[in-house]
Design a protein that fits this description.
Blueprint: E1 2-4, H1 9-12, H2 17-24, E2 25-26, E3 34-40, E4 45-51, E5 57-58, E6 74-80, E7 85-89, E8 92-96, E9 101-104, E10 111-115, E11 124-130, E12 138-140, E13 146-150, E14 159-165, E15 176-182, E16 194-195, E17 199-206, E18 214-220, E19 223-229, E20 233-237, E21 244-247, E22 252-259, E23 268-269
Parallel strand pairs: 1-3
Antiparallel strand pairs: 2-20, 3-4, 4-11, 5-10, 6-9, 6-11, 7-8, 7-10, 9-12, 13-14, 14-15, 15-22, 16-23, 17-20, 17-22, 18-19, 18-21
């Protein structure tokens, strides 16, 4: 499990392209029959891709956690962007179809992932953060998610925000998670942009064509930087950083947040004339 350490904004503005990517970017996170996890000291989130193909994949505690089992002190969310899969939590099976999600509460000891088809394997994108109490495990179907239309064609940011792990749907300690789909003809996922001092956020971009790219903007509002991402790649956003992207074609991304405040609308909006 690769570990990303926290970075001060005064240091980040001195990074060149390669160092910026090294500290905040993760390349393709899915590989067949593998669990690829990444640990960020930004609010101690763990994120990654689980792609079971020929075998069942068991999620176990890495050495970095100093725990008996993965969710001994953590909670977890997963959204499937592949074929039908099964998540087994302490011997209870949950069938998770494409664009469905599951939340697993603290204290669940056995957690495994499998696919129903070798030809169309599941792809579980997961996010996990520390938890101080146990909340009930629950599957969230696409229809059960909260769907919100946002933006406009005139502003080139017409999109649908799908909230899966959210206070209006279920109880969690600090994890929030969802998926945003940019409509054809639009490019921006948010602009004007914002920060939220009380939590960090991770974006995982997907459903992108091979030659498509997203220019993900980050950094202090007056000291912006960008990272170019391809399909199924990730960018870590510290609490002090803006996080906005513009694509060469439409795309989707999964957002996951954790920190002091999980209120989705707790954002510090940045006026356009501040951005540099």
């Amino acid at each position: 499990m690769k570990v990303f350490y926290s970075n001060h904004p005064d240091d980040v503005k001195k990074y060149d392209t390669e160092e910026l990517r090294e500290k905040f970017h993760v390349g393709r996170i899915f590989s067949p029959d593998s669990i690829n996890l990444y640990y960020s000291h930004q609010d101690r989130i763990i994120f990654g891709g689980i792609m079971p193909s020929h075998k069942v994949l068991n999620l176990e505690a890495a050495e970095e956690l100093r725990a008996e089992y993965f969710l001994e002190r953590r909670e977890l969310g997963a959204i499937n962007i592949g074929g039908k899969g099964v998540v087994t939590v302490d011997n209870t099976e949950y069938l998770i179809d494409k664009y469905e999600a599951i939340y697993v509460g603290k204290g669940s000891k056995k957690l495994s992932f499998s696919s129903e088809s070798l030809e169309d394997p599941a792809k579980f994108y997961i996010a996990s953060c520390p938890a101080h109490r146990s909340c009930p495990t629950r599957k969230i179907s696409y229809d059960e998610a909260i769907h919100t239309k946002a933006g406009s064609a005139a502003d080139v940011n017409k999109r649908q925000i799908n909230k899966y792990i959210h206070d209006d749907i279920l109880d969690t300690c600090q994890l929030a998670m969802g998926m945003t789909a940019i409509e054809e003809g639009s490019a921006w996922n948010t602009m004007p942009c914002h920060i939220h001092e009380m939590r960090m956020e991770v974006y995982m971009y997907f459903d992108m064509e091979e030659d498509a790219r997203v220019f993900h903007f980050m950094g202090l509002p007056h000291e912006t930087r960008h990272i170019v991402v391809k399909n199924e790649e990730v960018v870590i956003s510290p609490c002090w950083s803006i996080h906005a992207g513009v694509g060469t074609k439409n795309y989707k991304f999964i957002w996951s947040m954790c920190g002091e405040n999980k209120d989705y609308d707790d954002m510090d909006n940045i006026p356009m004339d501040v951005i540099r």
